[in-house]
Amino acid sequence: MTAQRCCNAETGALDQVGASICCEPESTRALPADGATVKDIVRRKYSDIALGEGCGGYSMIGDAYDDVEGYAPEADLGLGCGLPTQHAALAPGQTVLDLGSGAGMDAFVARREVGAEGTVIGLDFAEPMVDRARTHAAMLGYENVRFVVGDIEEMPLESASVDVVISNCVLNLVPAKRKAFAEIHRVLKPGGYFTISDVVLRGPLPEAVRQSVESYVGCVAGAMERFAYLRLIREAGFSGVRVMQERPIVQAAEALSITVRGVKPRELQGPQHTR
What we know:
This protein is an alpha/beta fold.
């Protein structure tokens, strides 16, 4: 896995805060207040990466995937912040949903674990990413891995239809995180669980970083404070919420990479979202 360093478009200096995505001149703009506009910016940035028209990632995890069974280097764009499959305890025959599946890296690792009798669904809102992932799946001969275009805040999936949800450095990019976790809860079967690697904060960000488009698409400015993030997950109805792994991110002193696991209870209480 090759890390790429990103240059500030105005100064030429190496960017050390939220450098998952290389800078472009427009990245120096202030972050829009409207969530839909923010999503459009993120979609465009990641579409450019999929098409080879934008810079790749400044890897937060180095070569951690190199020895993972099922790892497909051609699907690795250097955009992750953890190894969610390492803590997901996947089993043969399960149906796994990978949120923000990109070019398919974690989906293909999950396929190795669930086997030919399982199913892996990759969901991404950038159509060029989905196209790229489908190409990789065809090259690998995986008939039980499919990729669909969709929004994490409103997933095009049936309620109670998946056993496990995984995601790698994506939820921090979603403006409506409470809605995203409600959707994760909805699509999981009772007793199902998620394992998510994400970026959280251990302290306040400088205002200039918080309001930067570049830092948002680089997975930092959109991140929540650690305890607020875990509280939001519990409020979404998950039990047994545990941090499986936590480590600092060298590119951003205020940020942490965490891998979190939570379970949808078998006996549900209160109003449930159905579709």
